[in-house]
Amino acid sequence: MTCSMEEARTKGIMKIGYACKLIGVPNTNTKSCTLKSATSERLSELIEHNIGALNNAIDYNIDNNIKLFRISSDIIPFGSSEINQVKWWEIFSQELDSIGKKIKESNMRVSVHPGQYTVLNSNNEDVVKKAVDDLIYHTRILDSLKVNCNHKMVLHIGGAYDDKKKAIQRFMDNYSLLEDNVKKRLVIENDDKIYNIEEVLDIGIKLDMPVIFDNLHHEINRPDNPMDEKYWIDQCKNTWKREDGPQKVHYSQQAKDKKTGSHSDFIGIEKFLDFLEGLERNDIDIMLEVKDKNLSCIKCINCTDPNLRINALEKEWSKYKYTILEHSHIAYLKMRNLLKDKEEFNPVLFYTILENGLEKDRDTGSFENAALHVWGYFKNKASEKERNDFFKQIERFKKQEIGINIVKNNLRKLTEKYKESYLLNSYYFDL
């Protein structure tokens, strides 16, 4: 695909986005199958479903003003394998073209990120061949959407294989063998174990390719050079040419009490805002890598939107309300009081209360309290049997005979049966 400088011209400033999976958004999950059942017919069915799921995800992003999104590698099952003989880029060309138009018209920027087994610098020729095939597959996803070359494919350098200098040279040699349409999409990032940002920058400069700075990887795997985070981010900016689009970074936070490098359940908003302030610029796109995906993305967008209105926070509260009640009655009451003032509202305080609430451990009493509040939507609708079943489950839960998931699954079924839109749009069943 041709990527002209005019096509790559972007509008606006910083975009904040998330990766792949959506939380609390129906009909956006991808499906796959086992190798044994991967017939062309079955693969075609799954691909059709997954392209539909991608379309729904893009619609959600547009509705929520999300301008940065990583497309899942799983959209095409066995996408880079010889097992998959389906010419999906031809069969579903109209659907992909339609999605691509939505992306372009909304000024969204999408990307892909091949996984840990795509190792271009391997000392095993078969692994390298599979890596090249996987890069071709991921490039085909973006090309099929007909988006220009500021929509990128992110790759790690790979392993060290007991000789990092030779491994780096092997990466550069194998990179030179790639087709131009793959090279134009490819960007590289620092990792948390082997290749630090100084080494990746050196590779990027030599190959004339953009470099992504990953803050958490940098915290874990720093170069000997003592320069601060801003210095390295600014150095990376120099590798992004006009046709590549705005510089992009990856941002995440360390999960508490988990192994080093694990992503947090949510983005702590105050720490994120400190990171933004340290950049001293807004001509940069930030991909969040976090467990709650789109939820933290909306949080960060709302807290950086100078034109935010209180109805955006009220919409957020309607989604989190019963989840917070399940964690902390105190946080629940604080939030209700905060939102009473329609003129003076503080999005950072709003999300700080949410975060503090979500970090509280749930217990039998808080689970029961939230479930009873949710049951209130059905008390005048449910049948006598449904009423008896619910309260029997509550009693069994209190006696620790069953888990809360059984109670919540029953409430979910009632929500779907009686089409309670307030609950259907909440995160009560997802968090």
Notable characteristics:
single chain, 3 domains, globular, 8-stranded parallel sheet, 18 helices, 431 residues, disordered N terminus, TIM Barrel, alpha/beta
List the helices and strands and how they pair.
Elements: E1 16-19, H1 40-63, E2 68-70, H2 88-91, H3 93-105, E3 109-111, H4 125-144, E4 153-156, H5 164-175, H6 180-183, E5 186-189, H7 197-207, E6 211-214, H8 215-220, H9 229-237, E7 247-251, H10 269-279, E8 284-288, H11 294-302, H12 310-327, H13 329-338, H14 347-358, H15 364-375, H16 384-398, H17 404-417, H18 421-424
Helix pairs in contact: 1-3, 12-13, 12-14, 12-15, 13-14, 15-16, 15-17, 16-17
Structural class: alpha/beta
Instruction: State the fourth-level CATH superfamily of the largest domain.
Output: Divalent-metal-dependent TIM barrel enzymes
The CATH topology of the largest domain is given as TIM Barrel
Q: Number of helical runs? A: 18
According to DSSP, the number of beta strands is 8
Output the CATH class name of the largest domain. Alpha Beta
- What number of domains? 3
